[in-house]
Structures are given as C-alpha cells and as structure tokens.
Amino acid sequence: GSFANLTAVDVAETHLIVCSYIDNCPGHLCRNGATCKNLVDEYSCQCAVGFLGQYCHTVQTCGINVPQNGAVSPSSVSSINYAQSINYTCNTGYHLEGVATASCQAGSD
Predict the structure, then answer these.
(1) Residues 6 or more apart from 92 whose CB is under 8 A from it?
(2) Whole-angstrom distance, CA of residue 62 vs CA of residue 42
(3) Which of 2, 45, 50, 98 meets the CB 3.0–4.6 Å disulfide criterion with 82?
(4) What is the distance between the alpha carbons of residues 86 and 23, in angstroms, rounded to a whole number?
(5) Are 99 and 88 in contact (CB under 8 A)?
(6) DSSP letters for 74-94
(7) C-beta neighbour count of 80 within 10 angstroms
(8) For residue 58, what are the CA distances in angstroms to 11, 54, 80, 94, 107?
(9) pLDDT digits 0-9 by tens, 53-109
(10) pTM here?
(11) Helix H or strand E segment including 9
C-alpha cells in the first residue's frame, strides 16, 4: 500500500520500528569453552572455570608452598594448573598436619 497520506505517528503505530543490537559474537576470539556475551558495539568473554584473561586464553595456576621439613610431589614444579593436584610429605621425624593432597581450585592462588 501507499503511505503518502500517513503522518509519522500513523507509520509508527502501524509498523513495528525497532533498533536492535548488532550481534558482535560471530568470529569472536573467546577460547577454552568460554561464552561470548554480546554488548553494544563490542563483546566480552565469560570464561569457563579454570581460565582467565580477556579471551580466556590463560589457564589458571596456583602457587605451591613447600612445607618446612617436608616436600611436594611432583618436586620439579613451582605452580600447578587448575584441577591439577600436588602431594605433600614430611621428612623423617615429622608428621603431616592438614591434607596430604591439594588441588588448584578456581579463584585460589
């Protein structure tokens, strides 16, 4: 039909006029199971548990404290990644107080 005789109000009332977001997520750089969250003219990455960074590209790590008069296993590491475990032992003549195995959990360091 013709809209020649309709005013601006008539056009707005007879046709749904909507400005909607442009989907910025196609081609996103989110990694490691992250979810892309569409924002106005940009996006953000919601990281899966155990990952950090703008694009969730960094695996969370936890530092290791070697107990005095004891050791950790594996002994060659200074940190462990999310969900990995470390075992604690004591030297001869000492006993362990606390847990013998600890794992790197989300939000810990």
Answers:
(1) none
(2) 31
(3) 50
(4) 43
(5) yes
(6) STT-SEEETT-EEEEEE-TT-
(7) 19
(8) 52, 9, 13, 38, 14
(9) 999 999 999 998 888 999 999 887 888 999 999 999 999 999 999 999 999 988 754
(10) 0.64
(11) helix 8-14
